[in-house]
């Protein structure tokens, strides 16, 4: 009887394992293993981020881990930081050609491929994190992104967002627009072109190259992300003036790109796993940055003597005028960029009107209760 009970119990456990699609033996040992009969794939993810860098680097690691765990180990993703397999700015080509399977990065790095790509990360005076999510997921952005990226044999997903980024670090105070002229400032994407229009010199550098450039004097100022990531790089040691608000990346959406040939080979279940992992990573990134930026800002000011300064009004006005001109030129460049811009602009107009009577109005009212 005992033997029969054990046999029946074992059968019930086995049936449950098959129903749930898990390898219970591996899970019991704290491991993840592929379900019997499911093909196993080893995937290479290249990134544009320094290894294990808080937020950005760990966001890529987290996305890879989610794919592996959600697939029961059938899809195992190995992550390569910038420079380990290819350089940061070579990640797109590596995935496009099939040399790597996925990338985690920022779409505005690929502006040399198409001027439409930056809209899916951030443009100056553009969408906040929630607004770009709304456009991407429900406002037609994803369909246009798919169309653009498919030309390069890539299937894209949103897989992170840093939220609002600050204006950057400067060695000398910026009192007026005149102080911007001639400065060498690290800023990629459309924001870099806007800086050039107001007399600064924009420099595109990968994250791991910024501190040395600031230290050596190769650049006079830099933006990176926000307090959390900026603290990790130690920019405060080289530049004490930290400017707000940032207008170049009000809600920087980060991405996963999957080689399209690989994507088309995947089963519906495998595609759903990758898409779901990216969505989960996107959600957690917004929460994570919301928390750690607030913590790091306090540290920068109270422990490191950083001086927060508001960007002068004439600088903001000049940047706004330059942004209008640059975006108009981009929209006139080619059909796909024009359609992306028109869709983006229409979605932003709707979001602005809603935001005016919701978030903006509420933030102003809240100060009466919770004021600094």
TrEMBL record:
InterPro entries: DctP_fam (IPR018389), SBP_TakP-like (IPR026289), TRAP_DctP_sf (IPR038404). Signal peptide: none annotated. NCBIfam families: TRAP_S1. This is TRAP-type mannitol/chloroaromatic compound transport system, substrate-binding protein. It comes from Amphiplicatus metriothermophilus. Pfam families: DctP. One of its GO terms (biological process) is transmembrane transport. GO terms for cellular component: tripartite ATP-independent periplasmic transporter complex. GO terms for molecular function: metal ion binding. Gene3D superfamilies: Bacterial extracellular solute-binding protein, family 7, Periplasmic binding protein-like II. Na(+) binds at residue 224. Keywords: Metal-binding, Signal. PROSITE patterns: PROKAR_LIPOPROTEIN (PS51257). Substrate binds at residues 165, 186, 223, 249. It comes from the Bacteria.
